[in-house]
Amino acid sequence: MTGRLDGKIALITGIGGGMGVAAARMFCAAGAKVVGCDLSEEGVRATQRVVSGQGGDLTVMGGVDLGDALQAEKWVDDAVAVHGGIDILYNNASTQRFGSIEDLSVDDWDFTMRNELNLVFYTVRAAWPHLKAHGGGVILNVGSIAALRGVEFMPQNAHGTAKAGVLSLTRQLVVEGAPHGIRVNAISPGLVETPNTRTFLADPPERVRRIVLDRIPAGRVGRPEDIVSAAIFLCSDEATYINGANLVIDGGGSVLG
């Protein structure tokens, strides 16, 4: 993938952990100049050390709460100013709370909408005039297979609803963005091994193994690199005619219903 994004300026949210670390590292390795943010100051510094050690061009901004519209707008403006433009907005950041319909509180529902759906709208809204001024570009939103089907092993009503909203927003942005040269796509990961899921996956309950892990045709869960490799392709010039796609990345698990 080296060189696939040569000269591109990419804004990536949520680079302080999980798939965001891989996104920052791999986008830089592909030639992009990356400006990334996260709520965690410590997280972005750790990512910067990793990427800088590999020779990547990464600028980080920590303490950014994208669920606040004003902070999202300020971050986008500041990030665009670093290199004087923007080619790619990769909306990776998200934080959610889980619970059944009987147990999930209204506060937990609102928290999930704020930190999985609203923040995508806020960053896109802030980036839109910059993308238009730059002559177009690419927006990539992160959905989830939970937006496409019910999840048996864990109640995800707020998460699934928020991510379904992200996918719906993606489709509408295609229509509004095309006249300005703005492409908008989404990727929907299945179960991915990250620091947050690693302990759980190391010793999964029997029910999870039976209804989830044993039903992935690829024979394994996803890795952050699996997701980011697809993201790099969709953000590259090789994908200039791909607009409005939602690429499911789950090892084939969703085909089994």
Automatic annotation (TrEMBL):
GO terms for molecular function: oxidoreductase activity. It holds the Pfam family adh_short_C2. The keyword Oxidoreductase applies. Keywords: Oxidoreductase. It comes from the Bacteria. The keyword Oxidoreductase applies. Belongs to the short-chain dehydrogenases/reductases (SDR) family. PANTHER family: DIHYDROANTICAPSIN 7-DEHYDROGENASE. This is NAD(P)-dependent dehydrogenase (Short-subunit alcohol dehydrogenase family).
